[in-house]
Structures
1.
Amino acid sequence: MSWEQAWLKYQAVKGYLDEAYFKEVYTLEEGKIIENALAELRLATNKMFGAAIERVNHLPTKGIHLSLVSKECLAKEGFQLEEKNGLIAIMANTQIGLLYGVYELLRRVACKNKMALLSLTRVPDKELRMLNHWDNIDGSIERGYSGDSFFFENKQIVVNERTRDYARLLASVGINATVINNVNVKQEATEFITNTYFESLKKLVELFDSYGIKLFLSLNYAACMELGGLKSADPLDETVIAWWHERMKLVYQELPTLGGFLVKADSEGRPGPFTYGRNQADGANMLAKAIAPYNGIIIWRCFVYNCQQDWRDRTIDRARAAYDYFYELDGAFLDNVILQIKNGPLDFQVREPFMPLFGKLKKTNHIMEVQIAQEYTGQQIDLCYLIPWFKELLDSRTYCGEENDTIKDLLKGKCCNHFGRGIAAVANTGNSENWTGNDLAAANFYGFGRLAWDSELTSEEIAKEWICQTFPDEEEVLDTVSRLLLMSWNTYEKYTAPLGIGFMVTPHYHYGPNIDGYEYSRWGTYHRADHFGIGVDRTKKGTGYASLYYPPLSQMYENVDTCPDELLLFFHHVSYNHILQNKNTVIQHIYDTHFEGVKDVERMIQMWKGLEHKLPSKEFHRVEACFHKQLDNAKEWCDQINSYFYRKSAINDKRGRKIY
Amino acid sequence: MSWEQAWLKYQAVKGYLDEAYFKEVYTLEEGKIIENALAELRLATNKMFGAAIERVNHLPTKGIHLSLVSKECLAKEGFQLEEKNGLIAIMANTQIGLLYGVYELLRRVACKNKMALLSLTRVPDKELRMLNHWDNIDGSIERGYSGDSFFFENKQIVVNERTRDYARLLASVGINATVINNVNVKQEATEFITNTYFESLKKLVELFDSYGIKLFLSLNYAACMELGGLKSADPLDETVIAWWHERMKLVYQELPTLGGFLVKADSEGRPGPFTYGRNQADGANMLAKAIAPYNGIIIWRCFVYNCQQDWRDRTIDRARAAYDYFYELDGAFLDNVILQIKNGPLDFQVREPFMPLFGKLKKTNHIMEVQIAQEYTGQQIDLCYLIPWFKELLDSRTYCGEENDTIKDLLKGKCCNHFGRGIAAVANTGNSENWTGNDLAAANFYGFGRLAWDSELTSEEIAKEWICQTFPDEEEVLDTVSRLLLMSWNTYEKYTAPLGIGFMVTPHYHYGPNIDGYEYSRWGTYHRADHFGIGVDRTKKGTGYASLYYPPLSQMYENVDTCPDELLLFFHHVSYNHILQNKNTVIQHIYDTHFEGVKDVERMIQMWKGLEHKLPSKEFHRVEACFHKQLDNAKEWCDQINSYFYRKSAINDKRGRKIY
């Protein structure tokens, strides 16, 4: 299957005045990373200017100079770009810093920035910037909306030119780690830690290393039973411990630069330490000890909850689960364990409060997990540019009592005793020709990487960068696509589950509405709507979840009058006639926003149509087809939500619009 | 995989006084059918009495005599049993009649009937008594609840000893036709009409013929395109017509006794004549002409409806579809076409009115289709003995203006100009060791056959016959199992969708409750519940469906005060406070019946437990496990239905029971 180049297409830059800088490049460095940097420069200049840059063996009078320096401020991955008298110097402490510098430079060309007097320093503000792929060994992708896996085919690991292009895309935005297989490790994927797969994994590691990307693998916690034939996976059992030590020794003999492992344990049917009456730290530490000698890391997911809940029982709250399991274990994890915490307490909804563990874990390494695979946010059919949502999360104050108390401070390691370690995203790629199904969904892939590198970039800046590199250079294109991206999250929120209540999606598939789809189920995600009202009481009178936050957040959420509208139904069960802070009643807000959401999508289609003759036909029509499906979806959501609540509440829409 | 013998286990008959009749058998007849009859006698006598009957070459003084006679009253398949002076004479016009006589005789032994002065004549009252298997060539079964297919394995047709036992089960209850493959003909099953499968089909036909069973196959209407490479399947296209004539000639050269074909066209994504602007008669007749030279029959399903309906549109009514498509075509079908009409207008719900085509088709061959695969009636986990339901259907008067106007008269060919031809059931078998998953579900398999043969048998009689042959001979076993069977349909109806509204099941799977599961879907099966009431208006003010019946049924259904309670919500949208004929309100009836349904199941479990030491342990525990699952299911239905309607109506249960 052929594939495109996403934002690395290096479109011809017409009328660019600074082309002359890109004739010659000079460096003393050698090695695979430098080769990749130079190859990228050649490819880009050839495509942008019609002539590839030449590596010269002397410092040119006009050109580019890559050099290693020793500047503490640049740390391991940062770089400096300086233009002076015709020469652009790219400086870094490491070769990977130089590669990042090259990508920054090329991005600036694509966006037609001037080179004269260029002077900037860029250092990633988070240590771990990671993707999690949920690709299965059989080639399918769990929650994949863009074709099948390009990592796996016929139960084999594929390493080819597309894998290289994948690595280039990651490096170009600064992503420095990736997990290629599904956290639900099944079938032959359990055998990645055996001889069967070492050969192909070696090739992959070698390739990724040359782009500064650490390979991680998802691990089957029960591998000691499934592969080793042990009768137990008890983390305190000596035979279990011995098996893992031996196994990890073998793994690291073969793959010495492997980053480590991601583990989903005791969750949604996966095995884990709970089976043996042990806690999550027992499980994580046992594995961590086994790989500590090799500088390996265990990334342990906090998405642990009871998925056999009784819908009748209002005392159990899935939202509390991660907090309840992990807060009490703060400090119990080894240094080479990193907890991976979902952004919110449920599961990647269009709106959730942030997970209250953030700011509470003061002695445990952790990263935040977001999802750019649009499982609940339109599945890469509906446009939903998630960067503004991630920005809100990053900018959220935790009130943990330190000066820098936002989540982004935390993930940068600037508060909570430096235990924040970075950010991971569930990836949205597949083997479709444009990588992400909907072309516009690539903005989330790109944007996640950029935001992972630099929390201070704005959603608008990121959108613009991506558009410049992706679409023809026209003011109207830049403007329209940017507006489409920036309105899309809000639009999606309008026509789906209202006021923070979440879910209401088709069970299993998670696309399209099914208001009661999870209401009488075992999954712990309820809306509790009846004739009088709707919402989950998470105050002290309910599940007590609101109290898990630091004040003043705990008070703000606890109080129905101060709880933000967009999270009202997440925290409170209220009557349909409850007056929101926006002065509307809950029911009228539901009607209004749903009708608005459909109108928004209609407007988006009109906006997109205006670009028909300014965009390549293939891309234009691919996206247009998505928009039409999105409109159907929005209408279905609107009509089902409105009918559902009208039929239940018997309260008329005060504007008398059509409800079924 | 090993398998059991269902009701042909021929348990030892202790203390039976008439054993002496079963020492010798005499007949002049030869041939495969007679061989099978004699083999059955040998097997049965050996198992029941410990000594196999012997075939003797003279008329014995005490024993059995099989002989062909020529009596108009016995028709093709009937038989006579006469005991006189120690000799039991089995007489029939055909060998298959003799085989049926043998099975009747053995059934009477299993039930310990006396032989002295035995004198009876049995003639099947319906011509076609058929099973439809929805088995796929890959071995799976659509709506199969008892393992995989025993007809297909690895894309091959299997003919082995189990196939023979299957044929014996059919013949023992008088089933004389079967369709072995799914009406949704996909993959290699399309190739059954090619050389690829002729060899194995020949073996199957030969086996079935020797038990009086006509083999039919489901046909892919688009085979002329998929196999023949034609560009169209237009039934009026000369190349299409020619292709089918040629193809059928080949088929019947190889399989001269093949019964014919079953066709699902223009339904749920299947191809059909509508694609070419033709009607259903055009499609059926084209195929019928092609097989008429070989006495082949086309059975054409009437389950044709729009499965892309908009839930917002209340003018379309799926219940009308079969009537609207086929009523106007009455008389347009060739003589060797038989329409197969589902018992009700929706889809095998626990309660539906009968399909109004019955009694309206006066110039078209037709049979009724019922479903013993318990797709919507508990999936062979929940006990649901369907014979009482089928009896109600058969006994229903159509008011077609003739003296004998019930559906059973119709299917017997006794009214509507003899165009009624019989009955078919979607089968409930699979390759599990006991054939039907839940042992008690075999009562539906057995019962369908018996009822197909004789509409006048009562549900109780059939139950008793089946129990005698299946379980140890103990009064308490007979009594308890009989009571369990007879209460089960009513119990299932109590805890599932109320008052004839239907569906409310988990989409796709069709097991367990999902009240809104089909409410906002494209399938045309809605309940229209809102705060005020529930039900579908099928009166003249609504979809007009009620008027499709003859008076007085049309008036009875049209009028909310005369419409039977159990079908009220099928025909009328009423308020929750509407008073039923049983004096209860609709909402209180919903609450009451659902709590009752759970109590019934609890009672059933107690009843079953009382048999623990009277039944073989394996069977006891297999059924017990089903009952426990049924109780979970009943509780889930009860709580979800009651919570749903309480939350929507805000009307309290007047008995104050727990609703969530």
Note: The domain at 128-456 of chain A is CATH 3.20.20.80 (TIM Barrel).
2.
Amino acid sequence: MALVARAFGARGVFIDGYDESLVNKVRKTVEYWGGSYFEVRLVSDPKGLVRQWRENGGKVIHLTMYGINLPEVENRIREIDNLLIVVGSEKVEGWYYTNADFNVAVSNQPHSEVAALAILLDRLYKGDELNIVFRDAKIRIIPQERGKKVIRTDEQ
Amino acid sequence: MALVARAFGARGVFIDGYDESLVNKVRKTVEYWGGSYFEVRLVSDPKGLVRQWRENGGKVIHLTMYGINLPEVENRIREIDNLLIVVGSEKVEGWYYTNADFNVAVSNQPHSEVAALAILLDRLYKGDELNIVFRDAKIRIIPQERGKKVIRTDEQ
């Protein structure tokens, strides 16, 4: 989830809980693949984060298959600057449904939170996220028709 | 992965191995949420499947972060009728790189196979997949601004 957020153009990720190994994995990815602006933070009070985000003028989207289907709201949410996207695991408390600015579904079908986040970010960035270049990357893929080619950009 | 395939418009999924519980989970989803055309099959010889698919005139896309970035090939692959998409876990044998018709990356960044599949299907269907209605569904979500609403379509 955090790697999708980074690769698809988010500025950072807040993780509910104390999963230090996850944080380290994401930081490792950032170190090699770039995007040092990308913030990774553990939070112990996710509801407080949502409240504060809104008090600071930001908007909150809660991704849920029960919400309004993305095609109907994508133009509205694309205009928003400070967007916090809440992605839950299987059970999300009702509090988030009532306290988010938007409850958005990526189709009203059961599938995957990771896929939902990817498609939402894709719509926000209109596909440009697939061409992000992380200028501070230490390693970079040179796309190939067949096989793998990775270069180190710090060894030149 | 299989649920993303179903929700995003694939006609079925082949699973390498013998994960019967996964098959049952997908079939359960199809039973309630619809899409009885969606095939779920375990395969013991995935390379044989790839070979046969191509012999029958179909094309094979292997999703890999090392491949050609999707925006460069999406128009070409959208024209193809019988498409088999190969999605691997962490390590995929070189055989697939040489035997696929296309090695396609969804950005050349590390993230998630599920996200990659979702974005690829989204490009193939130009976003229409978010509005698929499964007419044979037993339950259906009525999208809500807040909260959850699910109806049984067989109790009317």
Note: Residues 59 and 80 of chain B are 7 Å apart (CA to CA).
3.
Amino acid sequence: MRLAELSARSGVPTATIKFYLREGLLPSGERISATQADYGGEHLHRLRLVRALIQVGRMPVATAREVLAAVDDTELDQHSRLGIAAWSLPGPAQGPNPGEEDDAATQTARQEIDGLLEHLGWEEFGPGTPAYETLLHAVATLIRLGYPCEAPHLRRLAQIAAQVAEADLDLLEGLPSEVEQVEASVALTVLYEPVLLSLRRLAQAEESARRFGG
Amino acid sequence: MRLAELSARSGVPTATIKFYLREGLLPSGERISATQADYGGEHLHRLRLVRALIQVGRMPVATAREVLAAVDDTELDQHSRLGIAAWSLPGPAQGPNPGEEDDAATQTARQEIDGLLEHLGWEEFGPGTPAYETLLHAVATLIRLGYPCEAPHLRRLAQIAAQVAEADLDLLEGLPSEVEQVEASVALTVLYEPVLLSLRRLAQAEESARRFGG
């Protein structure tokens, strides 16, 4: 197919596709004249992955390029591919304010989180990963504002989060190919975030009615 | 205490406190001279609530004024106060793009969500609430992009969300006063969102290691 058809079938504007080609995120098509190239199904798939990483996952272009290199590396197993994509995904919230990166609240939060992860035996994503750093600064904010955030409550939430992760991976394993799984792992992680948060708010209203309702 | 001390003890800048006073979000202090007023512990508490609504919950000033009126209404029970605060809280994600407010994907999503809420017997927050509308547009986005989002999966996530809500309300019930509970209900709903999302990402990495790891 030509560039115009690739754009129509993927829903990605031709200018954006040209940008991805220039940045090496999408392999060149097969050249059929001085000004035209032919694209195949593999371009359509890769385009969906690039869009998942950059538009849905807000991943910087340079990071997306590294993730794509890992996806294409036939020496890696599927766990490593999924891990590299997930590791590189920017955190779900903003980082700390200036001056709060390593204050007393952050140090207390770090101890609490390291204890939590050790208790759970979770050792895949440590300090430096966006997920760990987001957790660190969210817990530090709770401590700084004086809201409850004790270890037993965090453990309870972590065990609930493990159930979400099981549901997430079940959904992923239902997909037919490994490339689709990597693409979907990034897209589904991000796209299901507002689903989870709004279901929590609906459930809170029900639980509040049950406890405080007339 | 004077304005300067109220600012120091609350951590809210004096200019912001003056803005809250002008907007009627904070009651006036007791006037002790032509230019000075005296503030008490109730001002400190109310300031924390106003900050929870506006800064943490990103609630518009006019909406915050309505929530505060509900908190002060002695005719209302605690469930109604919590409900008005939670109902008014802006959704955890952006709304739909122009042209997507009522497209085919949104209509399918609406049917799916209404079926889900009926199945669960959840009837506190319906269409028009920020939580419902956020869920609607998140599910519509999944459908539009062709990602899996079937009813059994949503039901499974809703049941997990109900466990989070139980943990949330347990935390809230541990607080000593009703005003503190209303304040904390808004603040904790928002502040625990990045905690949940990052715990989910950490749990996904563990679950992926268990299923795909070597």
Note: Chain A has a mean pLDDT of 90.
